[in-house]
Amino acid sequence: MAASAGARWNHVWVGTETGILKGVNLQRKQAANFTATGQPRREEAVSALCWGSSDETQILLGCADGMVRHFSTNEGRFQGQRHCPGGEGTFRGLARAGGNLITCVDSGILRVWCDDDKEASSSDPLLELRVGPGVCKMRQDPAHPHMVATGGKENALKVWDLQGSEEPVFRAKNVRNDWLDLRVPIWEQDIHFLPDSQKLVTCTGYHQVRVYDPASPQRRPVLEATYGEYPLTAMTLSPEGNSVIVGNTHGQLAEIDLRQGRLLGCLKGLAGSVRALQCHPSKPLLASCGLDRVLRVHRIRNPRGLEHKDEPQEPQEPNKVSPEDTETDELWASLETVAKRKLADSRQSQGTPQTRHKKKRPRSTSP
Asked: Which of 37, 60, 121, 344 has its CA 20 to 30 A from that of 244?
């Protein structure tokens, strides 16, 4: 647990599968661990993160146990939590709209909760929507907090107005059949609202980037681009909003132009599947993390170098050697002892090496 005074100086926040919230200070190249219970627990795995306030002094964590925990970046500690039941699976989206909390889980249950302190104990949601099973992502429109988009595996892109009806205001239509007249499968992995526009962009598990315009009567993508051969798992908007950076299951990163659908360039990738990407709102910087447990900060359009690379370690007791390390050391020691013993036995059986004299060949005598 890091000191509370240093929490506000962290530049990047990362949630882990062991329930730890990590704050990384890029200038000092240090990482601090924060937990709600004082120790890491996989039951509290973090599956969703969002800011709880516009001044970025509060972070909301959606955890595997159904809790949404509140963390104060000023005080460096968890201030409270709220149980948000309903549906099955982990959180696939988390957002804050005024005093309300928006959650969405795998099974497609989207709920709006009153998150005021006075009514935080109430277990009844203000609104419940069924957005379809297999949800991979729920994303809030930053310009219109009451608008959210959802999508997933065999769950087409939909846009919902949480102040309107229980039907989506936009429902995307699948693309036309392929050249073999076969249906194209749907797998929306990530979604973003394009700034100063009604359009949305998605990335799919079939390595496609698509742009949708709800004003289009066809409801199909108005632009489509493909990258690589592997499923795209994460996406973020560039600071200008004219391109996106995507990552796939093989750790590859690429920037795709949204005006022409062309590849602008590739960045130095990860050693494992990409789990999350986030661009700085104004600077050409990108933060990435994945299964290799390394946080990287890239400078966009400069793939040769990294601004920062951090490999945070899980908290361990000081001066404590793990049982696996002890067993490994004992095994190597026993192998060395056996090798030395065999060498000594071999030398004893052979005795002291004798000097070999070269025999002289007898001279031949003439008859």
From this structure: 60
Which string of DSSP letters, residue by residue, matches 181-233? Answer: SPPPP-BEEEEEEPTTSS-EEEEETTSEEEEE-TT-TT-S-SEEEE-SSS-EE
Those residues whose C-beta lies under 8 Å from the C-beta of residue 26, and which sit 6 or more positions away, are 11, 12, 297, 307, 308, 310
How far is the C-alpha of 206 from the C-alpha of 150, rounded, in Å?
18
Q: Give the whole-angstrom CA distance, residue 143 versus residue 165.
A: 20
Q: Is 141 helix (H, G, I), strand (E, B) or coil?
A: coil
SS (H, E, C) 32-92: EEECCCCCCCHHHCEEEEEECCCCCCEEEEEECCCEEEEEECCCCEEEEEEECCCCCCCEE
C-beta of residue 349 within 8 angstroms of C-beta of residue 342: no
The helix or strand, by DSSP H or E, that contains position 298, with its residue range, turns out to be strand 295-299
Q: What is the dihedral of CA 207, 213, 217, 220, to 10 degrees?
A: 0
Q: Is 335 helix (H, G, I), strand (E, B) or coil?
A: helix
Residuewise pLDDT in 10s, the chain (367 residues): 333 345 778 999 999 999 999 999 988 888 899 998 888 899 999 999 999 988 889 999 999 999 999 999 999 999 999 999 989 999 999 999 988 999 999 999 999 998 765 445 557 899 999 999 999 999 999 999 999 999 999 999 999 999 988 899 999 999 999 999 999 999 999 999 999 999 999 999 999 999 999 999 999 999 999 999 999 999 999 999 999 999 999 999 999 999 999 999 999 888 999 999 999 998 999 999 999 999 999 998 775 556 667 775 555 444 444 444 444 455 555 555 555 666 666 666 655 444 444 445 555 544 4
